[in-house]
Specification:
It is built from 10 helices and 9 strands. 41% of the residues lie in helices and 20% in strands. The radius of gyration is 23 Å and the shape is elongated. The longest helix has 27 residues, at 253-279. Helix 1 (29-46) packs antiparallel against helix 5. It has 2 domains: 5-189, no CATH class; 207-296, no CATH class. The strands form 2 sheets. A 5-stranded mixed β-sheet has the order 3-2-4-1-5, sandwiched between helices. A 4-stranded mixed β-sheet has the order 6-7-8-9. By secondary structure, it is of the alpha+beta class.
Length: 297
């Protein structure tokens, strides 16, 4: 696309009632277009200049881990497909480009993964694109106020609920940065706060390096767009997580049992961190460390 084009990336976030299950995760073209038009109306009410930008969306809903991946692949796919859509932008108004399913299949790589179905928060992605100056101003307004003021219209929420067969408690629009902040809070509540800075680096600054080096948590290094997790022997783990008295072996059966439980928890934590990173599209390698693990990752 032209260098004068700028994108604003976000999603319609559907918070579901507990136990709600979707009747379908993708809409045929007509219904996708209706939902796209409703999203465009919401965004134009929030920021009137949004109506001058092209809105591209998918008639589908996704788990947050599918949208929050390095390079924003779902949004990138939307933008690439939207750039090839026929027709030009109207004078003073943007197009609404909504991708629906044909014979139960969405175009390109837009199909939601069944591996992440059933979560309590489902996201309908959207992208605004157009004149860089206008898009920048709309984007700044969205980043500043959308989290607090971006409640979806009642018609939009009802349309999404009926079209997907969901039970929606709340529907609001969020930017991808808002979604990152929301996920950080959710991971904090789930006991995954130590991992978030690494994941945030992978999402927002993928070419930078980040470490998780905070015993008793697993030792992890993110670099070159992948995460490497140190595999330690029980002895190396004990040395890294030693408590007073452990250096001499402790000696009691109770000490040995405590250390065995601690090492088992460490290995389970490694698997948990690896699963979360992979769900977010971050490659993970387990590295067998013989000496100093920090220097071997």
């Amino acid at each position: 696309m032209s260098e004068a084009i700028l994108h604003v990336l976000g999603a319609l976030a559907l918070e579901l009632t507990p136990g709600s299950a979707a009747a379908r995760d993708a809409l045929p073209q007509r219904e996708a277009g209706e939902l796209g038009a409703a999203i465009a109306r919401d965004l134009a009410r929030f920021a009137p200049d949004a109506a001058t930008l092209d809105l591209t969306t998918a008639g589908a809903h996704y788990d947050p881990v599918e949208l929050l991946r390095p390079g924003w692949p779902i949004h990138r796919e939307l933008d690439q497909l939207g750039a090839r859509a026929p027709g030009g932008r109207g004078e003073g108004s943007g197009r609404i480009i909504a991708f629906g399913s044909h014979e139960n299949r969405l175009p390109g790589a837009l199909s939601p993964s069944p591996d992440y179905a059933g979560g309590p928060l489902r996201l309908v992605p959207w992208s605004l694109a157009g004149d860089a100056g206008v898009a920048r101003a709309v984007g700044e307004a969205c980043e500043r106020d959308l989290m607090e003021s971006g409640m979806a219209g009642a018609d939009t929420a009802l349309l999404a609920q009926e079209a997907f067969g969901l039970q929606v408690e709340h529907a609001r629009h969020l930017t991808l940065h808002d979604l990152c902040a929301l996920m950080a809070m959710q991971y904090d509540h789930a006991g995954l706060a130590p991992l978030w800075p690494v994941l945030e680096t992978a999402l927002l600054s993928p070419d930078r390096e980040a470490w998780l080096d905070a015993p008793p948590e697993p030792l992890l290094r993110y670099a070159d767009r992948e995460a490497r997790i140190a595999l330690l022997t029980p002895g190396a783990w004990r040395g890294r997580n030693a408590e007073p008295g452990d250096a001499n072996g402790g000696g009691s059966d109770a000490d040995d049992e405590r250390l065995q439980r601690g090492f088992a928890h460490y290995e389970a934590r490694q698997r948990q961190f690896a699963a979360v990173l992979r769900a977010h599209g971050v490659p993970v390698t387990f590295a067998h460390c013989q000496g100093d693990p920090a220097s071997e990752l």
